[in-house]
Amino acid sequence: MVSEQPRADSVADPDVPQQDSEDTFDRLVDEGEQRLGRSWPGLISTGVLGAFDIGVGVLALLLVEQATHSVLLGGLAFSIGFIALTLARSELFTENFLVPVTAVVAKNASLLSLIRLWAVTAMTNLAGGWVFVGIIMVAFPTLRATAVEVAVFYIELGITWHAFALAMIGGVLITLMTHLQHATESDGVRLVPAIVMGFLLGAGKINHAIVASLLCFAALQAGAPFGYADWLGMAAFAASATWSAGWGWSRCCACCKSRTRCSPNATTASGRRDQRRGAPGSGAVTSVGAGPSLLVKARTRWAEPEEDTMARVPAVPTRAAGPLGRLAYRLARRRYGAVPEPVTVMLHHRPVFWAYGLWELGNQKAMRRLPASLRELVVYRVATQVGCSWCVDFGTMLQRHHGLDIDRLRELDSYPTAEAFTHTERRALAYADAMTALPTTVTDDMVAELDAELGHDGLVELTYAIAVENHRARFNHALGITAQGFTSGDACRVPQPGT
Questions:
Q1: Residues 305 and 394: beta-carbon distance below 8 Å
Q2: Quick check: 170 and 50 in contact, CB under 8 A?
Q3: Is the pTM of this model over 0.70?
């Protein structure tokens, strides 16, 4: 589609946010909301599974160090635990700093939910880890000497600046790993920082509270020369240092990103939504057509919600969409430049999501009898009558993409007399109004006249197109889904034919 020329100084403007950074921020906030909103059983299970994932890394480290006596190879083997943690999306204390902190800083979650997440994760990591490494010591008695040797290093660090610095590095490494993983949607790419940070933690003997605790638990159950009091002192000291570094960096990153997106020139997801909506209660639907001057006012019959901020049902984030959902998101993004918000909301009910998707694909294939200009015109009219600003936004983009004349949409409210519309188009628009009215006001004469001009098949397609758009528009309007920026260029990257 045709895009506006950028300002000459926009490249050097420090307040213009980077799109990749915004996407990373969105992914962090989306996942943070999901993780902070977990139920108690869900939170406990993910914490225990996180301990098992790291326990697998401990097993790999001990096996390799025993066989090779190489700390470097043992550290590389330990990265298996972080690979498992990444793929399973389990919870690890300090790994869950950046993501939930970002959600709290963005004011999408409460501080209390953050404290609950940290406390439960720490306890379940330790409890699950103690059980898992105990099983390892029973299953692999030859690893006991190696476990004691490795764990003694952490106990002998004591309460020193050396121990504190190693623990702080542990917090920084884990937070950096989380940040890098959320800069991409590819599971394969996410494994790279998991392997690198896992290697550094293992090979560098970084004093990470949970990792060091699991190694100490293994040693304690193998007859270590220290006791649980020694472990508790080490763990508490390491946790305080790890928490300080992880929390500090997470807070800094989250605040910087949040301020960037909230700067005067930044266009955030919620900011773009607010800009595209009319004033609360006005019923205005804004669409940028040939330029920013095209304002289409929809005659809505329902009041807008008091606080005009977001859809009434949250979108399903990419990380929670599942393999097929992520594929659908990827295809939609490739086609339209952004995933249509109705799609992300509908994914909450997966059978409905797939039924709707197949239905729309069938609609695209089936409705070929009428000229695109007529079909898109009546669809657009229905959207304005129902008050669906998302439909107006998306429909204008489609008309641009098909090379249709969108300037005439300014005259849509005066279509009965406007010269921009043909006689057949005026009748079709009147028919769309009559079908959309509550109750419907369709007459025999309307149907007879259109049947004579379009034929039986054309009339059926016209009626079907109007009914389908009523379905879309009323669904979107009821759930508070509004203009997404396809017309303004915030979302749409679909090229206009010939460009």
A1: no
A2: no
A3: no
